[in-house]
Here is the input.
Amino acid sequence: MNRLSLVLVALVGILAGALGYSQLNRPEPQTDEAAVRAIVEGILTEREAAEPDVTETAEIDPAVLNPMIETYLMSDPKLLQRMSVALDDTLRTEEQERAQSAIAEFRSAIYDADDHVILGNPEGDVTLVEFFDYNCGYCRSALPDLATLLAEDPNLKVILKEFPILSAESVDAARVAVLVGEEEGIDYWAFHEALFTSRAQVDKEVALAAAADLGLSRVSLELRMQEPEVSETIQNSYKIAQALGITGTPTYIIGNEIIPGAIGADDLRARIANMRECGKSDCG
Here is the structure.
């Protein structure tokens, strides 16, 4: 084993710990030794190729090895920063690839299911999918963004996926919403807006009252809330979310991209424009 290889072995443990510490406040997954090893090997390859192979027959004394490591790191103080950036890029690329694969596998359930609500133009040239919970404050704040996009873009298709994850009350409201979405001639946006603008926690009573305001029968809806078809609709959203790694609301899907969080109308508008221009949410 040559000297650089020995240094590499020691560096892997040190840099894995250092990079793990540096990423504690980042949303990306923590690094592991294998990822660090791959990056370190790439950085050292050229230098190792330029040096002769020196075979060591005895273990190096830590008193010798540690100063070598310190000297190497001090000779390039920005190494950790470059490795952190490289690791972020690698993890982001891997996450995008996993998301694209999952979206492709569940494409029919995401885009073609009969049990989801469609807003805007059903024949629109771009589709925006939103997973939401009626008790999600971020979803509430994002409602004007969706309203703006629907009002200004006649070729936008929006698919709403009930994803009640915050409370039992959210589940009850979602059950009512599923039934409202099945009714012909009902203005679902009016119902959707009424729930998100409610001052109280959105539960069964709030949802039934909003449905009644649209002319639907409270009694009939409440009797049907536990029907297997209603449960299946919500379970389908859970299955898709689990497969795609969706854990919060709101979460959007556009093209092959999963977008967590309320990112605002401008960012969504830009992604929609990119879909029209190049068929992807990011044309870069």
Notes: Residues 21-31 have pLDDT under 50 and may be disordered. The longest strand covers residues 126-132. Residues 79-105 form the longest helix (27 residues).
